[in-house]
From TrEMBL, chain A:
Domain spans labelled YHS: 412-452
Name under which the protein is recorded: Phenol 2-monooxygenase
Record's signal peptide: none
Pfam families (alphabetical): Phenol_Hydrox, YHS
InterPro entries the UniProt entry points to: Ferritin-like_SF, Phenol_Hydrox, RNR-like, YHS_dom
Protein's gene: mphN
Organism listed in the record: Sphingobium fuliginis (strain ATCC 27551)
Keywords: Monooxygenase, Oxidoreductase
TrEMBL record, chain B:
Species lineage: Bacteria, Pseudomonadati, Pseudomonadota, Alphaproteobacteria, Sphingomonadales
GO molecular function, one term: phenol 2-monooxygenase activity
Source organism (scientific name): Sphingobium fuliginis (strain ATCC 27551)
Protein name, entry field: Phenol hydroxylase subunit P4
InterPro entries per UniProt: Phenol_hydroxylase (IPR006756), Phenol_hydroxylase_sf (IPR043010)
Amino acid sequence: MDMPVTKKKKLGLKERYALMTRGLGWEPSYQPIDDIFPMDRFEGIKIHDWDAWEDPFRLTMDAYWKYQAEKERKLYAIVDAFAQSNGHLTLSDARYINTVKLFVNGFAPLEYMSHRGFAHIGRQFRDVGPRVACMMQSLDEMRHSQTQIHAISNYNRYYSGMAEFRHHHDYLPYLQVPKSFFEDAATGGPFEFIVAIGFAFEYVLTNLVFVPFISGAAYNGDMGAMTFGFSAQSDEARHMTLGLEVIKFVLEQDPVNVPIVQKWLNKWTWRGVRLLTLVAMMQDYMLPKRVMSWAEAWEIYFEENCGALFRDLARYGIVMPPCVEQIRLERDHLSHIAWCHFYQARGTSDFHVWLPSKEDMDWLSAKYPDTFDRYYRPRYEYWAKCEAEGKPFEATAVPMQCQVCQIPMMFTEPGDPLTLCQRHADYKGEQYHFCSDHCRDIFEDEPEKFIQSKIAGHEVFKGNAFRPGTDPTAEGFNPAAEALAFFRIEHGRDNGLHNGSTDERNFALWRGLAKAND
Amino acid sequence: MAVKAIDTYEFEPADKAENFHGACVIYAGWDGHLLFSSPYAWPLPPDLPFAHFIAGPMAEIFGQHPDWAGIDWNSAVWTRNGEAFAPDMQASIAANGLSHKDALRFRTPGRDGLNGAGI
């Protein structure tokens, strides 16, 4: 007897997506929905029709596993080949390794924070559509963090400043800037988080992070970093589209959402660009073979691309954040201000610094004709003289920091590059200082949040940067040395100048062995 | 504005004076000398004479600038949190009316940075 064959039609993408996302949800029967999802209303965002949420990629879990697994196989094949062929010796120059250090200490832990943030909000939205999208992004971010750490671990076997990246991210003063940035976002509600990270960071600013680091890797022979960059690229494209979809969805739901979203865009564009100070510096000073200047990247990726984006959002009543005006004024100063700071504060960093060579300075003059020669070249020339005389200039004192972005107060008044900018506010009988009007505005909007900031310098003064069991009253106690020990910075190895560092010496030695006969 | 939150949201300031073991945090920056990338912070005993603050912690860092030696402190112009301030050099930090997290800035007329260029 023949068995009747029921020919089942294969499900289309749309049907499969519906079944694998909304189809997995259910109507609660014995608990009020507000009790199940207590977090998605307190921010004041009003959503009337969750069904209007459309995932632009309609990605389902099974497809997700398949794509990601393929990318993993390719990535690890290259990472292994890089390790086995001593790929680190094909770099343009040993100075490039400091870019890798900045990346693993400053950015890979943010991918992990992003994973946690999206996992958190993936529980908070009452509709299953955005929950599934957040869950996928959460997995992506975890994968990015892991692949970056794996790829960079090849460098950690040979060079300093990377082994303690987790501890450094938690405690090292300059890394409190990226850390507190993400903590601010993760302690907002789910809508603020998704606007801050999903839109402001992943959409508005992502190219200014991604392109400089990954093109920098490609230009400087870093096959490992280049590969994790490419492996993450398709995810980033998905995150960008998701970020845009979220913004449009929220803005279309209710007019009361518009001013709330605008406030977040103003805040997070500013906070994002303050954080990108590190990238600006990397781009202009830390790549031996340069890709493009920070100013050029800003023109392409912000002025052109994001200008178009904000024009598109104008129909909802969204305007370009007012801070952009100041960012434009700082464009030709940012990287120089930062490198001048890191040069002198090199004692508490986990990467090495150096003075730009004559050729570097000529490039900087050409890229920054209005600012470099007038304001910054004289500093480098003076410091070069100090180094030549055997008395390198170094600022060992603790810098004053901004209460919001936590960056040392190194920025100048907008339009006056020779005066440092300071703003001040009082709250509940305590006083606070800020690097800018925009950081002060952020404080004044939520003072109760930012009075909790852990200001790295203050933590040292309070005695919170000592190892357990330390007795600060003991004879001959040296608080600076103890703080370095607590930070797990090996003085003279992890910090200081590149010239004469063990990294510089080892790279030259090993590359010599790889390229010549004994 | 109050923080929007799911419950009462009130915290103690992390950097209240009493958390600093009797010291008082004072910031100072030297205007027109951008060789120093930012003002700096020091936890100072409130009974420290102002002149000792200059000769000790401040000199240790600012003394690297060729303009530092031989500053005429009588002509230096000070501000405290943006307002005019005239320190009594012999009086202590506390007797000068300085309080925790005050931000001082000073200008040294005639000594305006490398080649007078504000650096």
